[in-house]
Amino acid sequence: MLLPTNGQFAVLIPAYRPGEIVVELVRTLAQSHVGPIIVVDDGSGAEFAERFRDIEQIPAVHLLGHAINLGKGAALKTGINHFLCAFPNLIGLVTADADGQHAANDILRVGTQLTARPETLILGTRQFDGRVPLRSRLGNQVSRALVRLLIGQRLSDTQTGLRGIPRSLLPHLLRISVSGYDFELEMLITAKHLAYPMREESVRTIYLDGNRNSHFNPILDSTRIYFILLRFGTLSLLTALVDNIVFFTAYHFTGGIGRSQMLARLVSVVFNYASARRLVFLSKQEHRIVLPKYLLLVLCSGLLSYSLIRLLTSTFGMHVMPAKLLAEGLIFIANFTIQRDFVFTRRDSAP
Fold first, then answer.
1. What is the set of domains in the chain, with CATH numbers?
2. What angle do CA 301, 305, 311 make, to 5 degrees?
3. How many CB atoms lie within 10 A of CB 177?
4. 198 and 191 in contact (C-beta within 8 Å)?
5. pLDDT tens-digit readout, 90-116
6. Chain centre to alpha carbon of residue 249
7. Sheet order of strands, 121-125 included
8. Half-sphere exposure (Cβ direction) of 239: Cα atoms closer than 13 Å
């Protein structure tokens, strides 16, 4: 029995060489009068043309297409753009996969939650127990731990394709540059740094034939996803390298910890700020808002680092360079967390 719906949201299904089950899913959703159903054929080819013609004949369906396969993220952005242009009065979109993982009732349940909370990102959360394919179980466990560090929020299913997305968030998603499965991780990062709350809604876990219909490549696509996470660590390591080279050089010539620390901080701030703001934390806030908070953090962390270096060298007899490396290592996570949650995250209301 289908859940009732008031038709205030649309459903978006990106599809690449889908099985027959997608036709039944779309037909079931149409019978529930869910609202517009946007299906994007992501370059499936001539052999799937008849299947998409069957989908197009279903009432309320809007069929869009790519000439070639561009990736799930590109298909989602095509559907999002169409939604924003064609349906100005609807509150948002519910995205669902075409491989049979999402039941119609669960799609409607996520839509109902979005209707009740139109400024919240709703995540249809699968339960990873029972007979879940190993690649799905391991992939979610690894990404769950990394995403928790990345956005500072515990999410039990970071790779779910069943999501209720507020209308006001959608224009920001069109600016995301990636076009594959990594788009969905970028969506979480973007929502985090625009201060959109996230809510998980438990849904059924369905895997047909061991999830054979999924086009997720566990090696290639996971590499793309984790590359996003790699940029966070890479910038931190490069900044630390610049900071320590300048500190070591200055200390070699001056012998003063304080002056060397100030010079190293100045150079590393110039190197780090712009990259952290745009490439790591994806902040689009004005410099007048972000820069004072960033400089205050630099000042506080610099004083703390200086104090720790003094303590380690005078009390424990450590050499200056090992003491600096240890001090910076101790405050690294605190620095990252403060930048993530207070410096580069919007704290005003969502746009």
1. 9-218 (3.90.550.10), 231-343 (no CATH)
2. 145
3. 8
4. yes
5. 999 999 999 888 999 999 999 999 999
6. 39
7. 61-66, 37-42, 9-15, 92-95, 163-166, 121-125, 198-202
8. 24
DSSP 24-91: HHHHHHHHTT-S-EEEEEES--GGGHHHHHHHHTSTTEEEEEESS---HHHHHHHHHHHHHHH-TTS-
The tokens describing 264, both together, are 């190293």
CB 236 within 8 A of CB 332: yes
Residues 6+ apart with CB under 8 A from 72: 14, 16, 42, 161, 179, 180, 181, 183, 184, 215
Helix axes 21-31, 49-56, angle to 10 degrees: 10
Burial 206-243 (b: 16+ CB within 10 A, else e): ebeeebebbbbeeeebbebbeebbeebeebbeebbebb
Higher pLDDT, 344 or 271: 271
Helical spans, DSSP H, in the chain: 21-31, 49-56, 72-86, 104-116, 134-151, 170-174, 182-193, 220-254, 257-275, 287-315, 320-338
* Amino acid occupying residue 180: G
Count of other CB atoms within 10 angstroms of residue 47: 8
Least confident of 22-26, 165-169, 231-235, 326-330: 231-235
Closest CA to 189 of 153, 161, 217, 156: 153
Q: Is the pLDDT of residue 308 over 60?
A: yes
* pTM of the predicted protein model: 0.73
Neighbours of 33 (CB within 10 A): 13
* Paired tokens of 21: 């089950």
